[in-house]
Design goal:
Elements: H1 2-27, E1 44-50, H2 62-73, E2 78-84, H3 88-99, H4 109-112, E3 117-122, H5 124-138, E4 143-149, E5 161-162, E6 166-173, E7 186-187, E8 194-200, H6 221-228, H7 230-241, H8 257-268
Parallel strand pairs: 1-2, 1-3, 3-4, 4-6, 5-7, 6-8
Helix pairs in contact: 3-5, 7-8
Length: 270
C-alpha cells in the first residue's frame, strides 16, 4: 500500500513538472498570457466640433478643410473628423470603440494609457470639447490637447474648468459684438494640465473676411471672425501637428507650446 501511494505521488509530481514545462507554449514566455500581440495600437484621434447649428460637411468652415488635410497627410496613423457640437456623446462612444483594441467591450489601463486624443472646437463646439474631455476623465482616458476658439457654454455646461486628464489646453476669445467667448479657462489640477494661454483676439484694425458665410452671420460678425482667422488656424495647426506621428519627409515641428504661446501673445495682444 505504501509503495502504491509513492508511485501515485511520483506520478503527480511528473504530471506537474510536465505542465510547468509546457506552460510557455500556452501562456507565452514568462507565464503571461499573450493577448495583445498582433493588435495594432489605436490611431491618433483628432476630433473637432463646429459651432451653432453648422453641419459637419459644410466646407465653408476652416475646421472642415483642416481635418481633410490631416487625413490626406496621415492616412494610416491619424483619424481626423469634425462633428456637430451636439454629437459629443456619440464621439465619446466612438473614442471608447477606437481604444478597445481587443474588442471585449472593456477598456483596460493598457488600452487607455497609449491614447493620443486632440480636441478642438469653436463657439458651442468649444463647450463640447470640455464636456467630452470631462467624460473621458471619468474613464481615466488621457487627452493630449484641447483648443477652444471663442467658446460659448451651453446651458448647464461649464467650459471654463479643464479636467486633469488634459495635458495641455489653450483658449482664444474676443470681447466685441453680440456673442462673446469664454475669457479664461483654468486647470482643475495645475500639476497635471498646462494652460498654454487665454489669448485675446481683436479685429478692430484688421478685420477678417469669412468667404461664403451667410449674410445673417454679420449679426455676430466678430464672433464669426474668430472662426475664420487664418492666424488662429495656423497656430492650432502647429499645436496639433507637433503631436502627430512623424511621416517620411516630415521635419520636426518648429512650434512648441511655449513658442506658440509667445507668438500668439505677440500677434493678438493689444
Amino acid at each position: 500500500m505504501v509503495r502504491l501511494r509513492l508511485v501515485h505521488a511520483n506520478g503527480l509530481v511528473v504530471l506537474l513538472l510536465a505542465l510547468l514545462i509546457c506552460q510557455p507554449i500556452y501562456a507565452g514566455g514568462g507565464g503571461s498570457v499573450v493577448q495583445s500581440q498582433g493588435v495594432p495600437a489605436p490611431p491618433t484621434l483628432v476630433f473637432g466640433f463646429l459651432g451653432g447649428f453648422v453641419h459637419h460637411d459644410d466646407g465653408r468652415h476652416p475646421a472642415v478643410d483642416f481635418v481633410r488635410r490631416l487625413r490626406e497627410d496621415h492616412p494610416k496613423d491619424v483619424e481626423a473628423a469634425v462633428f456637430e457640437n451636439r454629437r459629443y456623446r456619440e464621439v465619446y462612444k466612438l473614442i471608447r470603440q477606437r481604444l478597445d483594441t481587443n474588442h471585449d467591450g472593456i477598456l483596460s489601463d493598457a488600452e487607455k494609457q497609449p491614447a493620443r486624443i486632440l480636441l478642438f472646437g469653436n463657439s458651442w463646439g468649444g463647450s463640447a470639447v470640455v464636456s467630452l474631455a470631462r467624460r473621458l476623465n471619468q474613464d481615466g482616458i488621457p487627452v493630449v490637447l484641447t483648443v477652444q476658439v471663442d467658446s460659448v457654454a451651453k446651458p448647464g455646461h461649464d467650459d471654463s474648468l479643464i479636467p486633469p486628464n488634459v495635458q495641455q489646453a489653450v483658449n482664444y476669445y474676443q470681447t466685441r459684438g453680440l456673442i462673446r467667448g469664454r475669457r479664461k479657462i483654468v486647470a482643475a489640477d495645475p500639476s497635471r494640465t498646462k494652460i498654454l494661454g487665454n489669448f485675446l483676439l481683436s479685429y478692430d484694425k484688421n478685420p477678417v473676411k469669412c468667404e461664403g458665410f451667410p449674410w445673417y452671420d454679420n449679426v455676430m460678425r466678430t464672433h464669426i471672425e474668430t472662426e475664420c482667422d487664418p492666424k488662429v488656424w495656423s497656430e492650432i495647426e502647429s499645436l496639433v501637428r507637433r503631436e502627430l506621428p512623424q511621416t517620411a519627409g516630415d521635419s520636426p515641428a518648429s512650434t512648441s507650446p511655449v513658442n506658440a504661446e509667445a507668438s500668439t501673445k505677440a500677434t493678438h495682444r493689444h
